[in-house]
Every structure is written in structure tokens, then in C-alpha cells.
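Notes from hallway chat w/ T.B., transcribed later so I don't forget. T.B. wanted the structure written out for a chain they're using in a teaching module, and asked if we could keep both sequence and C-alpha cells in one place. Agreed to drop them here.
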Amino acid sequence: MAELAPIHPCLWFDDQAREAMEFYVEVFPDSRIDRIDEYPDESLDEHFRGMSGKVLNGRFTLNGVPFTCLDGGPLFRFNESISFIVSCADQAEIDHYWERLSHEPDAEACGWCKDRFGVSWQIVPADMEELTRRPEQIRAMMRQKKIVIAELENA
């Protein structure tokens, strides 16, 4: 059995864990689904009713970072209080991730977006601290949805 990293995120999906893993490994380089354990056959125990074939424990790696996920039902929902930062080398990389991950235009602000599963992402340049040193750069960033590096450099 593979060892868990000392700390890594676990994502609770209603019933979309497998779909989410497949989607994310297509979006990020150096990514793979490492393991999927399904809930036992529901005929074995009433606690598994309706869960047969769903993900009990999914392990996947995105750009070298380990994740765990599960199908736990609709009890919990993702919200913006937790997000994943994607540090991008250039505008092309920002554009790539933004195009693939941003799904809810109303949730877009300052490089933050929300994907089709409700997970929040911050798609930002690797040198974001350098690009937001001056107040006019911060004002420019606050007006943006997707980060546009040239606008921050020219502010």
C-alpha cells in the first residue's frame, strides 16, 4: 500500500469523484489516477445502500501533488473558503488553466475561479508578489477576473 504524504487534500464529492479525477488528470501535467477503491456491494450491508460502485477512496496526483477524494453524498459542499493555487509560468499557462477550470463566471475575481465540481482555484502568475507590489498594480488586479500579466506590468 502506498504511503500518504504528511499532508495532502481530501475532496468530498457528492457522487462525482471518479469524473473529477479523470477531468483533473487531463488538465494538469505530471498527473495520474493512482488508485480507486469502491464501496462494497450494497447487498452486504444496509449502510452501503445506493453507494455500490461509487468511490470510497480515490487517490490521484496532480502535477506531482497527491490528493485523495471520495463520494460521500450531498452532506457537504465546496465553497471559496478553501482554494488551490496554481502557480503559472506565463500568460499562456494562465489562459490554459483558466479555460479548462473556470466554469462559473459569477465566481470569477482576482484570479479566482470555480470549476464544474464547485472546487475553487487561484490561477496566478508565479511572480504574483512582484506584480502586485504597488497600489496601482493591486487596483488593476482587483478589477480583473482572469489575471492578465501585461495589465499588471503596465499599471
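Follow-up for T.B.: Strands lie at 10-13, 32-38, 55-62, 65-71, 83-88, 112-114, 120-125. Might be a good example for the class.
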